[in-house]
Amino acid sequence: MLSESDEKEQLEAFGKNLRGIRKEKDLSMEALANLAEIELSQIYRIETGKINPKLTTVLKIVKALEITANDLFRCCNLE
Known about the structure:
79 residues, 434 Repressor (Amino-terminal Domain), 5 helices, Cro/C1-type_HTH, Lambda_DNA-bd_dom_sf, TransReg_Diox_bact_type
């Protein structure tokens, strides 16, 4: 089980990775939100590590970015 500080660190790393992938694809947060059919504010909160997104939200983002879930979780030390 992750401690609260470890969870915060993982969420921030996940968000930073998402932001990097989005920028590599030359997408604004608004464009990604539209492609993924989720709220812009949710993209912002995920990228800044403020929320722990639901699996369905992560899958929408993966599909919108045309990447694999592994690409998105690459930042997280899951071993």
